[in-house]
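Translate sequence into structure tokens.
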Amino acid sequence: MTLANGLIKNLYANGATSITSIAFSPENKAEVEQQARDLAFQDAKEQATKMAKSVGKRLGRIISIADDQAEVEGTVSSAQGADGTSNIEISKQVSVVYEIW
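Result follows.
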């Protein structure tokens, strides 16, 4: 991020008035995307289990699964860590429909 910050400051110092569509992506994009998808599925199952349990039911088999099929996108946090690094937040959405019984 330090290099990106320096580049942006340099662009503005040399007359740029706006900068749009800056994209950040991890070097290991496929691995990060799979990890985000796995965590999304895990969270979906945990949430479905809680909801089913709250009405006295249990999860059955999966009826359908939908992945957002979007590219992994990252949002850079404005807060910097103690070591001067910034975090990139990656998100992935899935929808899982379970049979309950």
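Note: The mean pLDDT is 82.
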